[in-house]
Structure prediction request, 326 residues.
Amino acid sequence: MGKLLVTGGMGHVGYETVRQAAAAGIEVVAQYMTTFREADAEAAGPNVTWAQCDLSDPYELTVLAAAHDISGCIHTAAVPNDKLGYPRPLRTFQSNVVATELLLETARRLGWRRFLFVSTGSVFQSLPDAVTPVAEDTNPTPRSLYAATKRSAELMTAVYADTYGLSAATVRISWIFGPPLVPRAFDGPRGPIPEYLRRAMRGEAIRAPSGGDFAASFTFVPDCAAGLLTLWQAEALRHREYHLGSGRNHTTYEVAEAVRRAVPGVEIEVGPGSAPWTDTTVMRGPLDCSRMVEEFGFRPEHSLDEAVAAFADWMRANPDTWGDAA
Prediction:
């Protein structure tokens, strides 16, 4: 078997996927475009070859594919949310749609064994309520730039599977958190866990006037990467779409309790409502992850409390990531 191409290898999900794959003895080609952290690249180990490439450039992608013995791809690279996407819509389309199409065509042409497109629960934006679990065969309802580009790439992934026989699937993930601390300042699309932990580790009191009623399927990044590698290594895929996560929502109130347990002594007060976590997205029911359970027996290893505690331990071991105290 050839090497696994992980796109967005310096990204949040991408790097953890690279790290876990390499640790499992899988030979990896890790693509990045602009961001490159030499220390992280070295830490990933000798099973990883790092390759700079603009995936939306057909020439650069052709060169990348020709230079390495690649047998498949986990495609995590993207403009990851509307906050980043709205100021540059064309670049978002090129990154999220054009690059995916070019990768799919490369996979078809070279006969890759598998292609996994990492998408998002954000493709569901017009649901009847924010409580009912979202089944994997639910019709997506994108309304924003980010959701529309991701849904477009989902459709092309299914076309290549149905028309050309490529073993390809979309994997929708949701509200990823965990090491490293990304970013180092407040960022609504990342959710309350990194924000609250960052401030708690600084010793700050957290007094949020709203946000407690916000609920989401928070997913610890090591669990996300483990699920992606489960799909990569599977003998066959029976479905075109998979949801990857815990299968349940947690409120910000529950997040606050988990942070209190992970960082004893922290003061947290959270008011009702969903802002600021819904300023650039909408609430939805939990992603139903039945196919991962039924087909592969996969469930995330960490509970919310365990994941928050593990993230806090990582932050204690990496105090340079907290930024300066307020």
Remarks:
- The first helix runs from residue 12 to 23.
- The domain at 3-175+220-243 is CATH 3.40.50.720 (Rossmann fold).
- The chain has a mean pLDDT of 95.
